[in-house]
Write a structure and sequence with these properties.
Shape: elongated
Radius of gyration: 18 Å
Number of helices: 11
Distance between the termini: 20 Å
Length: 222
């Protein structure tokens, strides 16, 4: 769940490669994470990548195009991984818990990508925000499967899944904004419980959250 990356692979490693385009995409993520989207320049990206203007012009129209393609690859990889995870022969709640665990670890392992996906994307123009919205909509649809898990699922408000996904992302956004992504894995029990509680009863949500993380749920993510 939530831009989940395959086990053992961080988001930046998903686009990292030796070909010029891959180097430029990777340099874009690094540059934007450090300087912000508005203060990032093509010249700075080229300096980080160790390439020249002609190579950039061969692959991208401008900085916005380059950033959008980097963002699209990151989110596309995450979407594929999320769909693969939710296709596993596991109970829905276990899939949610596993997705949250992998997401938090991936973001902690790659602070630059975490900063871009959770913070800088909002300042990168309408195309980037729309691409993020599409990814979030997929996560919301996967959470909707939880309505079948509890007796009262049909009575949940229509916006329940949207609120759950938005709430989790809001917490992650704040941690990334504060430069605290290294501590995200410590939130896995709290966030799992928060994500499951609307769909399961308290005991079931608590059991899955604690079994996944091995620690007790607290209020640390609040």
């Amino acid at each position: 769940m939530f831009f989940e990356i395959g086990a053992g692979q961080t988001p930046a490693q998903g686009v990292s490669c030796r070909d010029p385009r891959g180097r430029l995409l990777e340099a874009t993520i690094e540059t934007v994470s450090l300087r912000g989207y508005d203060r990032s320049t093509v010249s700075r990206i080229l300096s980080v990548a160790g390439l020249d203007d002609a190579v950039f012009d061969e692959h991208f129209h401008d900085k916005r195009d380059c950033f959008w393609q980097a963002l699209d690859e990151l989110l596309g990889r995450g979407e594929c991984a999320a769909l693969e995870l939710f296709a596993l022969k596991l109970p829905w709640a276990e899939r949610v818990a596993l997705g949250i665990e992998r997401l938090l670890q991936a973001l902690a392992d790659d602070p630059a990508t975490a900063r871009v996906l959770l913070v800088e994307v909002f300042g990168a123009g309408p195309e980037a925000c729309e691409r993020r919205r599409v990814a979030v909509s997929l996560l919301t649809s996967l959470m909707e499967h939880g309505r079948a898990e509890g007796a009262g699922g049909a009575q949940l408000p229509p916006q329940t899944s949207e609120a759950v996904v938005g709430g989790v992302l809001s917490i992650l956004h704040r941690r990334a904004l504060q430069g605290e992504t290294d501590g995200l894995p410590a939130l896995r029990a709290d966030l799992t419980y928060f994500a499951l509680l609307p769909y399961l009863d308290h005991e079931r949500a608590l059991a899955v959250a604690n079994r996944q993380s091995g620690v007790s749920v607290s209020t640390s993510a609040a």
